[in-house]
Design a protein that fits this description.
Distance between the termini: 99 Å
Helix content: 10-25%
CATH architecture of one domain: 2-Layer Sandwich
Shape: elongated
CATH superfamily of one domain: Histidine kinase-like ATPase, C-terminal domain
CATH topology of one domain: Heat Shock Protein 90
Number of strands: 68
Number of helices: 8
Structural class: alpha+beta
Radius of gyration: 52 Å
């Protein structure tokens, strides 16, 4: 922790000092910054498995996780974090700890333990089940499955266990430690006494030598002894080659057509399995020591376990040439002179790249001034070298092999960078802006500085275009100077970092900065994008269709079209300076410790597997990939994300999106979600590999947040059923109401129709009478009038007492009671405490109409036999109460189904703003309808 704080503190100090406008300070500080940071970072042991010293076996599962077994148990490693399954871990508990071997068994493993036998281990869930092999000892050193049997070595005996019957028997006694390896057809066993092959339930000798290690490679078994390396095919035909040092490390390549040997001296070799022909490789060598376990994974990383810990090696085609001069800063520049690579040093003048080269004249550096020995840039123009130094521009002639300072006024400036186009040399200075030099005429043709409008005088890089635009990278931004029309356009800085270099591709300008990323502009200077923030870049160059740009830690390649930037594998250990040079399809790039050589071949894209390595739901951890169910929004869900690429390189980046929404960038490999509303969520995760390339693989997770109790799926079904019932009931009630209204309309229409017919008949008779009188037919007219009078008299004499007919309530109601008794055999009692002067005739008529309609409706639709009517005055209201001895009036307030009588009653009540109330019977006996008429409204 203290070391990390020291790194942070030193970084801040150096960055602050690097902003001082002095190239000596800038370049002197950049070297220790890169070197010190690089050294400190490599000194901090970041992998959690680096110091596991007692590892017995290393393998990889189908998903791509690395598994290491040993005294600590079974450890899963995902390139960032590790999980160890053992008896001692409460979260990841298995019934054993010390593990000897981990053997593939379908998509599971067979784990052989020291103290508790053999177990089938599921790497996707962490669950185990015992292999029920009956042995005298529970110490199982190696168990393997082969053709329907388990074979176990335990305490100098080999046991065979038939899987389908559970039968176990000892089939071989050994003389020492034994381990197995299998091909498609054969099972082999190595012991200190030799190599054996299984034949009809017994092991037969193949080699009678002490076998150090064995490995199966396709259909071949590879074995090492003290003096030889053997290859044995399916027919047990043997090929061998001699070896000069002991080999204990042996592993097949990931594609299984070849294998690696690792000697105790640290020498790594690669061979073909079929003929033992040696193959070139780029893994180099390792430290001396006996290798206990070796493995080559899918990302082309070679894993080596020894008593010193776990080491990973990455194959590299990069060749490093350590070249360090005794100068203040080894920030050198490369150039090509007479077809050979030469170095422009920061204090030692020009130097040959190859020690045996004679391309540079002897004693050439004695021709430089003292300041001129500090070279900032070297350009090859028409075979001559133009050299920018602390003391102006110098030229080395290829024909004459002479060095001289170019003769133009004030050619003694501190120079930083040069650029050449169409006979014009553009010279960037530290204090004086930009000079334009005409090589043919040997004269300065233009000079522009901050006084003329440049954003700064310190010109760090230059890029010239055919149309006269000159892009200048400075300490405070970019200036675009057009040398034809003398205009200047300044692009402000996007941060505190200096602009270090410019490159042009795909009609875009790529400006690399010291910490603010790479800014991408169009030709007009409009900022299109910013990528790779936080990386301290140096100079950039266009190589084929890509942009190559060095950085304080690594070399990056940018795709100009997609803006994707990737770290070149195995360059993260180098801190780069200057521009690259290409010689014979090889790229040479200077770094602070020398020069590296990189072949111009594109590396294959590694499509890393992306997973959710671990889920933590409210404190409960799990590696099982299954839907996550939580009960409320307050619960916390954390996903540990993994990209299974074990090569060193960039810190992996992760993005996620929810329910196919927009992508969100994560700042680490952990995704924490909380406050999720009730519902279903689909989480999709993408990640980069170790080189910064986005993998095509995705990780997925489903989260279900439970609804509150009142909104669960079952409750919602109940709500839906209730809603349907309510809607159905309302619809039914509306239908009944519509039917009631329709019936009333029919009755009213029929009544109007009947009345109309009577009126029409009367009018016709009167018209006929008038006509007969005009014709003097007196007798006929009398006859018609007589018929008409009979009809009118018959209508007036009908005995239906449905109105007062000019009488009072005191007369009409007793008559109505007698009518009811004679016709319907029901009784009607009447009481009135209402003075006559309180009511006019119209009100009495309407009250009688209510009484008539209510009782006749009750008789027709109810079962009441005795009715009682009372009229009272109380609190300025007339109270009409009609009651019966059954339930005839209980439905009179129904707004859904009603008849003509109920319609009349409501219309009369509305006319007088009277209230209508009904009362249910007590003990199922008697019902009432009570109507109150306000007297004040009436008056």
């Amino acid at each position: 922790m203290c070391l990390l704080h020291a790194v942070t503190g030193i970084t801040k100090i150096l960055k602050r000092n690097a902003l001082v406008n002095k190239p000596t300070t800038k370049r002197n500080l950049l070297i220790p910054l890169c070197c010190l940071l690089s050294g400190l970072v490599h000194a901090v042991p970041t992998p959690s498995i680096q110091y596991l010293a007692k590892i017995n076996d290393i393998t990889q599962d189908d998903d791509g996780y690395i598994w290491l077994v040993g005294h600590q148990g079974i450890t899963r490693y995902d390139s960032i974090n590790s999980i160890t399954f053992s008896t001692n871990d409460a979260n990841w508990q298995v019934p054993f700890t010390w593990t000897h071997e981990l053997e593939h068994y379908g998509n599971k493993f067979i784990a052989s333990s020291e103290t508790n036998g053999s177990w089938i281990f599921d790497p996707k869930t962490g669950r185990v089940e015992p292999v029920k092999i009956k042995t005298e000892s529970k110490s199982h050193y190696h168990t393997i499955a082969f053709k329907g049997h388990f074979y176990t070595y335990s305490k100098l005996q080999v046991f065979q266990h038939k899987i389908n019957t559970g039968e176990t028997k000892a089939i071989f006694d050994t003389k020492g430690t034994s381990f197995f390896a299998k091909t498609a057809q054969n099972l082999y066993m190595r012991t200190t006494g030799g190599l054996f092959v299984l034949k009809e339930n017994n092991f037969e000798s193949v080699l009678q030598e002490r076998i150090r290690s064995i490995v199966a490679v396709n259909n071949y078994l590879i074995a090492t002894t003290e003096n030889a390396l053997y290859s044995i095919d399916e027919n047990n035909e043997i090929k061998s080659i001699p070896i000069t040092s002991a080999i204990h490390g042996l592993t097949k390549t990931h594609n299984s057509t070849s294998f690696f040997t690792i000697s105790d001296q640290g020498e790594i070799k690669k061979y073909r399995a079929n003929d033992l022909a040696e193959i070139e490789h780029g893994f180099g060598n390792t430290r001396k020591g006996r290798i206990k376990a070796a493995f080559h994974d899918s990302s082309n990383v070679l894993w080596l376990a020894s008593n010193l810990g776990v080491e990973t090696l990455v194959e590299s085609s990069i060749k490093n040439y350590p070249i360090v001069f005794s100068v203040a800063s080894n920030a050198n520049d490369l150039a090509i002179f007479k077809g050979e690579l030469i170095i422009g040093s920061y204090g030692k003048g020009l130097q040959n790249f190859r020690k045996d080269s004679t391309v540079l004249p002897e004693n050439i550096n004695k021709l430089f001034s003292d300041k001129g020995l500090r070279i900032m840039d070297v350009l090859n123009i028409n075979e001559d070298l133009y050299i920018a130094t602390f003391d102006g521009v110098w030229r080395l002639s290829a024909k004459q092999n002479t060095l001289e300072r170019i003769n133009f006024p004030n050619n003694n400036k501190l120079l930083l960078k040069m650029s050449y186009l169409n006979g014009i040399l553009y010279i960037g200075t530290n204090y004086d802006g930009l000079y334009t030099y005409d090589i043919a005429n040997n004269r300065i043709v233009d000079h522009v500085s901050k006084e003329d409008g440049l954003i700064a005088n310190e010109i760090i890089d230059i890029y010239a275009f055919e149309d006269g635009d000159i892009w200048l990278a400075t300490t405070h931004g970019i200036s675009i100077y057009n040398r034809n029309n003398k205009t200047i356009k300044n692009l402000p800085s996007q941060g505190p970092g200096k602009y270090i270099s410019l490159a042009f591709s795909d009609n875009k300008v790529f400006a690399a900065t010291l910490g603010d990323g790479i800014l991408i502009y169009d030709r007009e200077g409009t900022l299109l994008s910013i990528i790779a923030k936080g990386i301290e870049f140096s100079y950039s160059s266009k190589v084929q269709d890509e942009i190559w740009v060095g950085a304080a830690m690594g070399l990056y390649i940018i795709d100009p079209k997609s803006h994707q930037f990737n770290l070149l594998p195995n360059t993260e250990r180098y801190s780069f300076s200057g521009e690259l040079q290409i010689v014979d399809e090889r790229v040479f790039y200077n770094h602070y410790g020398g020069v590296i050589e990189i072949p111009l071949t594109k590396s294959d894209f590694f499509n890393a597997n992306v997973f959710i390595g671990k889920s933590t739901i409210s404190g409960q951890q799990s590696i099982v990939q299954q839907p996550v169910n939580i009960n409320s929004a307050s619960e916390v869900v954390t996903f540990d994300l993994v990209s299974l690429d074990y090569r060193p390189g960039q810190a992996k980046q992760f993005r996620y999106r929810v329910n196919n929404g927009s992508w969100n960038q994560l700042s680490s490999s952990q995704l924490t979600l909380t406050g999720l509303a009730s519902g279903e969520y689909n989480i999709e995760v993408m990640a980069t590999n170790s080189l910064g390339q986005w993998s095509n693989n995705r990780a997925f997770a489903n989260i279900s947040v439970a609804y509150p109790w009142y909104w669960t799926s079952k409750i919602r079904i109940i709500y839906a059923v209730v809603l349907i019932c309510v809607i159905s009931l309302v619809a039914w009630l509306l239908y009944l109401r519509a039917q009631s209204i329709r019936n009333i309309h029919i009755l009213l229409a029929n009544e109007l129709k009947t009345k109309g017919k009577r009126d029409l008949s009367a009018n016709r008779n009167i018209n006929l009478t008038l006509k007969l009188l005009d014709e003097n037919k007196i007798e006929d007219a009398k006859s018609v009038l007589t018929q008409n009078l009979e009809v009118i008299e018959q209508d007036s004499k009908h005995d239906l007492p449905d109105s007062l007919f000019g009488k009072s309530l005191e007369v009409a109601i007793p008559y109505f009671a007698e009518y009811l008794h004679q016709k319907h055999h029901v009784n009607l009692a009447y009481e009135s405490e209402l003075p006559d002067h309180k009511t006019d005739y119209e009100l009495q008529s309407n009250i009688y109409k209510i009484i008539y309609e209510a009782i006749t409706c009750a008789i027709s639709n109810g079962d009441g036999r005795n009715f009682h009517v009372t009229l009272q005055e109380f609190k300025s209201k007339i109270w009409l109460t009609i009651s019966d001895d059954e339930t005839s009036f209980s439905h009179f307030n129904n707004k859904i189904t009603f008849n003509m009588s109920m319609y009349y009653i409501r219309q009369i009540a509305n006319k007088y703003k009277a209230s209508v109330n009904t009362f249910e019977p007590n003990d199922d006996k008697g019902s009432q309808i009570v109507i109150s008429f306000p007297l004040m409204d009436i008056s």
